[in-house]
Design a protein that fits this description.
Number of strands: 27
Largest sheet: 8 strands, mixed
Oligomer: single chain
Distance between the termini: 31 Å
Shape: globular
Number of helices: 1
Strand order of the largest sheet: 1-14-15-18-25-20-23-2
């Protein structure tokens, strides 16, 4: 359970990773016309293995999001949806259903295949959040689908002595285990709220790919300024033992995401992510022939 009063001593990082590249993301639309920013795009998949995509969505205009994401298939990876504001109803053909609300997370393993819908349950107000796609190793791509909703109060949280308030969605930070762990990809997914001028240090394994996304304020990493709505790909520096994030003159919110690369071939066709084109063709045939069960209820 969450414990917002839990305080943790700041971890030590002797040398921070630097910023290899800043990425602005691409304005696009998905589903039934939902407007969003695709931050992690397909050309970055090899560089940021095991992560396949990161979408940021946010609007106070219901016309930008109210149609949602009607029935659509997935196979071969996991989706992590993190709602900052708003409500989204999730249903899938494996029989899972839930309502994702402010501060909540939905973690879905598509595995062998589900048909899935994500529909807003409000017509006014702000809808804001993120969806991350995390790859599965080849041996697990045809596993049974799995799903879990975490309400905001179920997500582990802590504060550091410097005032950083951290939600641990996946992995471990400052001795606090996240809501989800995965052996193959060892994902770390933190939402970090920093007071003006505060710093946060996070150790990272040398072989893990990592990036941050700033969604409020601005930060500095190893001398490089990262503005709001920018992703910073962190350099794979063997001499660095983690990352140090320093907030600017205003309160800041930033996602820190890292993981162990799979090093496997990536074959993607829309919502199907496999290792070979033959597996993509099989996924298309299975979907076409109704071997992805329709959503019931």
């Amino acid at each position: 359970m969450s414990d917002t009063k839990q305080q943790r001593k700041s971890e030590e990082v002797s040398r921070s990773r630097g910023v290899e590249r800043l990425v602005a993301g691409q304005a696009t639309s998905d589903g039934a016309g939902v407007k969003l920013t695709r931050v992690l795009t397909q050309p970055l998949q090899r560089r940021l293995d095991p992560f396949l995509m990161l979408d940021a969505f946010g609007s106070n205009d219901p016309g930008d999001y109210i149609a949602g994401f009607p029935d659509h298939p997935h196979r071969g990876f996991e989706t992590v949806t993190y709602m900052i504001a708003g409500r989204m109803r999730h249903r899938d053909s494996a029989g899972h259903e839930g309502l994702l609300e402010n501060g909540g997370v939905q973690w879905m393993t598509a595995g062998s295949g589900v048909i899935h819908s994500e529909l807003p349950e409000q017509e006014e107000g702000v809808m804001e959040g993120f969806q991350l796609w995390l790859n599965l190793p080849g041996r697990d791509k045809m596993c049974a689908p799995w799903y879990r909703d975490f309400a905001a109060g179920e997500l582990p949280t802590f504060t550091t002595e410097t005032g950083a308030a951290v939600t641990v969605i996946a992995g471990e930070s400052h001795g606090v285990a996240g809501a989800v762990t995965r052996d193959a990809t060892a994902p770390l997914y933190l939402d970090i709220h920093l007071p003006a001028g505060a710093r946060f240090a996070q150790p990272l394994p040398a072989g893990h790919n990592a990036f941050i996304y700033v969604y409020r304020g601005e930060v500095t990493v190893a001398g490089t300024q990262v503005a709001v709505q920018r992703m910073a790909i962190l350099a794979n520096d063997a001499a660095a033992d983690g990352v140090v994030i320093e907030a600017g003159a205003a309160p800041t919110r930033v996602l820190l995401i890292a993981g162990q690369p799979l090093g496997e071939p990536i074959a993607q066709y829309g919502p199907f992510v496999m290792n070979t084109q033959a597996e993509i063709h099989q996924a298309l045939a299975d979907y076409r022939d109704g071997r992805f069960a329709p959503i019931s209820g």
